[in-house]
Amino acid sequence: MHAYDPRLLAPIVTDGSKIVAGIDRAGQNGVAELRYRRRGLALSLGAILLVVVGLVFKVRQIERRANHRV
């Protein structure tokens, strides 16, 4: 180790740095996609919940009308 030549090690370090940078970008893209999908899931679940709540109120309204007619 005391007699190593930095010129021989520099290309290896450069190649390794390029690989690590690519992996880092891929990881950041994966996290961004996960965040996007979670946000989409939350919005769609919110919309579905609103529809279900609306349907429950409509069914109750129809039942009240039917009970008043009898």
Description of the structure:
With 70 residues, the chain is mainly alpha-helical. The chain has one helix and no strands. The longest helix has 64 residues. It is rod-shaped and about 100 Å long. The protein starts with 5 loop residues before the first helix and ends with a helix. The model has no long low-confidence stretch (mean pLDDT 93).
Q: Which residues form runs of ≥5 with pLDDT under 50? A: none
Shape descriptor reads rod-shaped
Distance between the termini: 97 Å
Work out the radius of gyration: 30 Å
Question: Mind describing the biggest β-sheet?
Answer: none
Structural class label: mainly alpha
**What proportion of the residues form beta strands (DSSP E)?**
under 5%
Q: Tell how many strands the DSSP assignment holds.
A: 0
Helix content: over 70%
User: What are the secondary-structure elements, in order, as H or E?
Assistant: H
- Counting DSSP H or I runs of 4 or more residues, the number of helices is 1
The average pLDDT is: 93
